[in-house]
Design brief:
This protein has 15 helices and 13 strands. The chain is of the alpha/beta class and 375 residues long. The strands form 2 sheets. Strands 3-2-1-4-5-6-7 form a 7-stranded parallel β-sheet, sandwiched between helices. Strands 10-9-8-11-12-13 form a 6-stranded parallel β-sheet, sandwiched between helices. The structure holds ligand GMT. Residues 12-15, 17, 92, 121-123, 151, 174, 206, 208, 210, 281-286 line the site of ligand GMT. It comes from Danxiaibacter flavus. InterPro entries: Glyco_trans_1, Glyco_trans_4-like_N, Glycosyltransferase_grp1, Thiol_BshA. This is N-acetyl-alpha-D-glucosaminyl L-malate synthase BshA. Residues 11-180 form the Glycosyltransferase subfamily 4-like N-terminal domain.
């Protein structure tokens, strides 16, 4: 098949998932055309089956806001017609689903029918999409998609709760390439981070308020006096600077490292003992799944789709949003019991393997085959 993939090219979970999907489809012999405003961060391989089409938005002094969606729709039309695409798969509803609707209409006028599949990822529904300024367009363009998928049962339910959706939404869970996270810890790296054999705790996110990153620091401040430990903070975003200040104020700066955005996240997970994810909401929690694939147990909140990924008392623990006391107690319990920690690590790995790329990509292929154009 010739597949167009539209996504955000950044470190966000939806862009990561879309890029990994495109790479896996290309490996299976499909032609994959990425249509994005910059090269996706995880598109770090050469493949004869992968094409990258950059959306360029011409500036003009009249515009306070450059019309990105128009440029995106025009690029989609161009790629559909010039590369004879069989379907478009857009990740994250805003503005990709509405741009795809526009592209589909234009292509139709030019004699081409192109099915559009929209995958909902989370904040496009639960945070941004619900905003009155976007809701009518989001509802319309989701309903106009030929197929709609959501990355968890919870996100499917949330979408029906907040939008008048007239079509079925299929749940296709996010996936992880287990082989990528099957890494031996680099001893030298572990020694630099934890020279005295301290436990290594990790958090990775885009440091937005929905992640409640301050709860990671508060939890670590509670763990640290009881269990010799170090905290690695991976990623970057609006809350980072405030978090660095909080760490200094708590006098934890020798034990907490802010690593910024990291491409080789698997090397970091390989030395970690515990992943913390205290989010207000996660449709799925792809970062937690990647940690689990590297045998790192997770203590997360029980918000959104997290209980579908992280199993209470088995792969980690689930606590109420904002309950940093519970998070701290559970972390101390786990980190101070080596046998329990090893058991949780194994369960985390086994649970992650249910979401292996080889199980999920064929589900997308089956979906594509159902909607592939007939003209
Ligand atoms: O978490 C974010 O803020 C980024 C966002 C995205 O779209 O890139 O992540 C969402 O999609 C991921 C991939 O499907 C999910 O794993 C995340 O849970 C989801 N984030 C939220 O729902 C907050």
């Amino acid at each position: 098949m010739r597949i167009g993939i539209v996504c955000y090219p950044t470190f966000g979970g939806s862009g990561v998932l879309a890029t990994e999907l495109g790479k896996a489809l290309a490996d299976k012999g499909h032609s994959v055309h990425f249509i994005t405003y910059q090269q996706p961060v995880r598109l770090n391989v050469f493949s004869a089956n992968i094409y990258y089409h950059e959306v360029r938005v011409p500036a003009y002094p009249l515009f306070d806001y450059s019309p990105y969606e128009v440029a995106l729709a025009s690029t989609m039309v161009d790629v559909i017609l010039n590369h004879d695409l069989d379907l478009l798969h857009v990740h994250y509803a805003i503005p990709h689903a509405s741009a795809a609707y526009m592209a589909k209409q234009i292509a139709q006028k030019r004699g081409r029918n192109i099915p559009v599949i929209t995958t909902l990822h989370g904040t496009d529904i639960t945070l941004v999409g619900r905003n009155k300024m976007y809701e009518p367009v989001v509802t319309f363009s989701i309903n106009e998609s030929d197929a709609i998928t959501a990355v968890s049962e919870n996100l499917r339910e949330e979408t029906f709760k907040w939008f008048k959706i007239t079509k079925e939404i299929e749940v296709i869970y996010n996936f992880v390439d287990m082989s990528r996270f099957d890494k031996k810890p680099i001893d030298a790296f572990r020694k630099v981070i934890a020279p005295n054999g301290e436990k290594i705790i990790i958090h990775a996110s885009n440091f937005r308020s929905v992640k409640r990153v301050e709860d990671v620091i508060t939890t670590f401040a509670g763990i640290h006096p009881k269990v010799p430990s170090k905290l690695l903070m991976v990623g970057d975003g609006p809350e980072r600077s405030a978090m660095e200040t909080m760490v200094k104020d708590l006098n934890l700066h020798d034990d907490v490292r802010f690593l910024g955005k990291q491409e080789q996240i698997e090397e970091i997970y390989a030395i970690a003992d515990l992943f913390l994810l205290p989010s207000n909401y996660e449709s799925f929690g792809l970062a937690a799944l990647e940690a689990m694939a590297a045998k790192v147990p997770v203590i997360s909140t029980n918000a959104g789709g997290l209980p579908e990924v992280n199993i209470e008392g088995k792969t980690g623990y689930l606590t109420n949003v904002g309950d940093t006391n519970a998070m701290t107690q559970k972390a101390i319990e786990l980190l101070s019991n080596e046998a329990l920690l090893q058991e949780f690590k194994q369960h985390a790995f086994e649970q992650a393997s249910h979401f292996d790329i080889h199980n999920i990509v064929p589900v997308y292929e089956k979906l594509y085959a159902r909607f592939c154009r007939m003209d």
